[in-house]
Structures are given as structure tokens and as C-alpha cells.
């Protein structure tokens, strides 16, 4: 446990704002980001080795899409469940449980060839993996200074998610040809256990600790107002609806584009599976970089203008990528669309944490992101069915319209950049 002391400062609204030592802020961001990165590994290894799993289970592409959608049901349940748990039991311990759930379930999925057991384990992987964002983003956001909050929460965390995909792709290239797809699942338990041990050294969120102490004092004061439920607060409801708009696009767009990313290159352009995985790795290197570009600009210029700019660029690149028949041009537009997913998620992850007060930040974030994930449950099934029915181009072209929701969400929401969480999360 760090011996550095957390200081308390006053905000312009008269509330108190903890000043967390930079070393501890970075440690929390890295711990949350590495967990999110290995969540990315557990999530994306499925799509990367999908042909091998499909052959082993003896099912159609449509069934593989259904399994992907069931995974997202788990992701939605985990998002909401772990977010609520983080407000009740704390950020640090809840995050530790999350990584154990998805690490163990991913490994066990590599040991079975039973369709129903495999599907159930993918559901549990979704439940556990969702906690990495649902808990990690509020945790990191509460630990970072206002001027660099998007770099910490969005840049560091989501760039490591991108790195997780790169690791998954590299593992698939090395392991699958030699030992089969099963081993790529089994090894997931190793980093999960190491990260669980590492997280024991972290400091609990100072903001959460203060909020809990204040709640206990109020509980002993009969004259103090009772804590309100999130749905009873009009401004909280409005901010949840904004989160639904932003994350309906973010989540459906992400899963719709990435689950069948390598399949798209194989079917439309005749790439080999190995070539498709290698190019997907390049796309995620671009995403790694654009996470920091988008997050840095959002800290410098503002969340709303940079998110709207990202959505507009995404719409243009999606249309151009879906309509070109030239593989070289697709590689340019495809890398930008995957890269801009990182731009938009980096800003969105930070922005939603800033819309709620500490005592309900985990719950507010979870319901906002979880609402979008409910919409995304259909993405693997719909896109898998559409590719089988209409070919690879039409479903990807249709997704260009999703980002209108992003623009509307940010237009309706407040600007939060360069402000303390005590100010941005104040509700009336």
C-alpha cells in the first residue's frame, strides 16, 4: 500500500476534491487498463479463431453469431451488476472479482467441445469481463486530475484494450497453427491471476472512501435527507438517456464491426485467414494511437466537439470502406474505422463517468453503458445473418448511420472537460 497521502482541495462549488498522488493514479489506470486489455483478449480471441471453433462445434456462422450475442447478454448483465456493486462494496475489490470470473471462464471454455457448455462459459466471460470497464472507468476517473482525466481513463485504459486485441491476434497466429484454438483460451487464466494479485497493492478510490464516510454520517443523523434512488433524480435520468444514445452507437458499432472483421476481409477481398489476422493487428495498432489522440484532444479542447468530430469521421470512413472494391483502399479506411472506435470509446468512457456524483457514479455509468449494450446484443447475430444473406458490404455500410446517435447524445449533454468530478457530477 502506498504511503503517499491523498490531499483534499476545495472546488469552485464549495465541495471538496481529493488530490491523489500521480504515482497512485497511474498505478490504478495501469491496473484497470491491463485488466481491460486481458478482457479484450478474452473477448476478441473468439472472433479471431472463430473458424476453428465453428469447425470443432460443427455449427453454422449464424449459430456462431448467436453465441456472440449470448456473450453480449452476459456483458450487459455484468456491466450493470458490477457497476452497482462498485458503489456498494468499493472499486478495488469489485474489480478484483471481475478479472477472476472472466479469466477462469475463458480458460474452461478452451477445455470443452460441448456447444451448450461452451456457450454458457462465454456468457460468464461476458459477465466478468464487463466489470473491467464498469468498475475500472469510474475508479480511474476518480483518481486522475481534471486536466488529464480523459488521457487516464480513456487513453491509458482503452489503449490497453487495443493492446489486448493485438496480443490475442499474435497469440492466434502463433498458437493455433501448432496447438489449435483451445490453448488460446486456456492460457487466459495466467494473466488474470497475476493481475488479481497485483491489484491487492492498490489504494481504494479516495472519492469513494469520502462518499462512504459521508453516507455513514448521514445514516446516523435523523434530520439528514435520505439518499435518493438514481431513477428519482430528474437530471440523472436525463444523463442516463444521453449515455444510452452514445453507447448504443459505441457498443453496436464496435461489436458489429469487429466480430466479423477478419471474415469480412476473407469473404470480400479473398485474404487468407492469416493475412486477415495480421491486418487486423495493424488496425488495432492504429486504434492504440488514436485512443491517445482523441483523449488528448478531448482534454485540451473539450469532450463534446472532439466526440462529434470523431463520429463524423467515422461515418465517412465507414461508407468509403464498405463501398470500395480495392483491398489497399479498404486497408486505409478499415484501419481508420477501427482506430476511430478507440477515439470514440476513449472519450465516451471518460464522459459518462463525469456525469454522476461519486455515490452513484458506478451505478450511473453501468446503467448508461449497459443500456447501449442491450442494443448491441443483437449486433453479432444481425451482422452474421446479414453477411450470410446479402454479402459483407451491406451490413457494414448500414452501420454508418449509427453515429448520428453519438452526435445527438453529445449535443444534448453538458461539457465536462477541465472540471472536477464534484462539479461535473452535481445533480439537481
TrEMBL record:
Residues 25-418 form the Major facilitator superfamily (MFS) profile domain. Its main location: membrane. It comes from the Bacteria. It is found in: Cell membrane. The chain crosses the membrane at residues 26-49, 61-85, 97-117, 123-139, 151-173, 179-198, 241-264, 276-295, 307-324, 330-352, 364-387, 393-412. PROSITE patterns: MFS, SUGAR_TRANSPORT_1. Gene3D superfamilies: MFS general substrate transporter like domains (1.20.1250.20). InterPro entries: MFS_dom (IPR020846), MFS_sugar_transport-like (IPR005828), MFS_trans_sf (IPR036259), Sugar_transporter_CS (IPR005829). It is a multi-pass membrane protein. The keyword Membrane applies. Keywords: Membrane, Transmembrane, Transmembrane helix. PANTHER family: CARBOXYLIC ACID TRANSPORTER PROTEIN HOMOLOG (PTHR23508). This is MFS transporter. It comes from Pseudonocardia hispaniensis.
Amino acid at each position: 500500500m502506498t504511503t503517499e497521502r491523498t490531499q483534499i482541495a476545495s472546488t469552485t462549488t464549495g465541495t471538496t476534491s481529493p488530490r491523489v498522488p500521480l504515482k497512485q493514479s497511474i498505478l490504478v489506470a495501469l491496473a484497470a487498463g491491463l485488466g481491460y486489455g486481458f478482457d479484450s483478449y478474452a473477448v476478441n480471441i473468439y472472433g479471431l479463431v472463430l473458424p476453428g471453433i465453428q469447425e470443432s462445434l460443427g455449427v453454422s456462422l449464424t449459430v456462431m453469431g448467436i453465441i456472440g450475442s449470448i456473450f453480449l447478454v452476459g456483458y450487459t448483465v455484468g456491466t450493470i451488476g458490477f457497476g452497482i456493486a462498485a458503489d456498494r462494496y468499493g472499486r478495488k475489490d469489485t474489480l478484483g472479482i471481475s478479472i477472476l470470473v472472466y479469466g477462469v471462464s475463458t480458460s474452461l471454455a478452451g477445455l470443452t467441445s460441448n456447444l451448450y457448455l461452451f456457450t454458457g462459459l462465454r456468457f460468464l466471460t461476458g459477465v466478468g469481463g464487463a466489470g473491467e470497464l464498469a468498475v475500472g472507468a469510474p475508479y480511474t476517473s476518480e483518481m486522475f486530475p481534471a486536466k488529464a482525466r480523459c488521457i487516464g481513463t480513456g487513453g491509458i485504459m482503452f489503449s490497453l484494450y487495443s493492446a489486448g486485441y493485438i496480443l490475442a491476434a499474435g497469440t492466434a497466429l502463433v498458437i493455433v497453427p501448432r496447438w489449435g484454438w483451445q490453448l488460446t483460451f486456456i492460457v487466459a487464466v495466467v494473466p488474470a491471476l497475476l493481475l488479481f494479485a497485483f491489484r491487492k497493492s492498490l489504494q481504494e478510490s479516495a472519492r469513494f472512501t469520502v462518499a462512504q464516510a459521508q453516507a455513514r454520517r448521514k445514516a446516523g443523523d435523523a434530520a439528514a435527507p435520505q439518499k435518493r434512488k438514481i431513477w428519482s433524480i430528474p437530471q440523472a435520468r436525463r444523463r442516463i438517456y444521453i449515455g444510452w444514445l452514445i453507447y448504443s452507437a459505441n457498443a453496436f458499432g464496435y461489436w458489429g464491426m469487429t466480430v466479423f472483421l477478419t471474415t469480412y476481409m476473407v469473404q470480400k477481398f479473398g485474404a487468407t485467414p492469416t493475412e486477415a489476422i495480421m491486418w487486423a493487428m495493424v488496425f488495432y495498432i492504429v486504434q492504440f494511437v488514436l485512443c491517445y489522440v482523441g483523449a488528448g484532444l478531448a482534454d485540451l479542447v473539450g469532450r463534446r466537439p472532439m466526440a462529434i468530430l470523431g463520429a463524423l469521421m467515422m461515418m465517412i470512413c465507414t461508407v468509403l470502406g464498405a463501398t470500395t472494391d480495392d483491398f489497399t483502399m479498404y486497408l486505409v479506411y478499415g484501419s481508420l474505422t477501427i482506430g476511430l472506435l478507440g477515439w470514440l470509446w476513449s472519450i465516451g468512457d471518460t464522459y459518462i463517468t463525469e456525469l454522476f456524483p461519486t455515490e452513484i457514479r458506478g451505478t450511473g455509468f453501468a446503467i448508461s453503458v449497459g443500456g447501449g449494450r442491450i442494443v448491441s446484443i443483437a449486433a453479432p447475430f444481425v451482422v452474421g445473418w446479414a453477411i450470410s444473406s446479402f454479402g459483407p458490404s451491406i451490413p457494414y455500410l448500414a452501420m454508418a448511420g449509427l453515429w448520428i446517435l453519438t452526435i445527438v447524445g453529445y449535443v444534448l449533454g453538458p461539457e465536462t472537460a477541465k472540471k472536477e468530478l464534484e462539479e461535473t457530477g452535481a445533480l439537481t
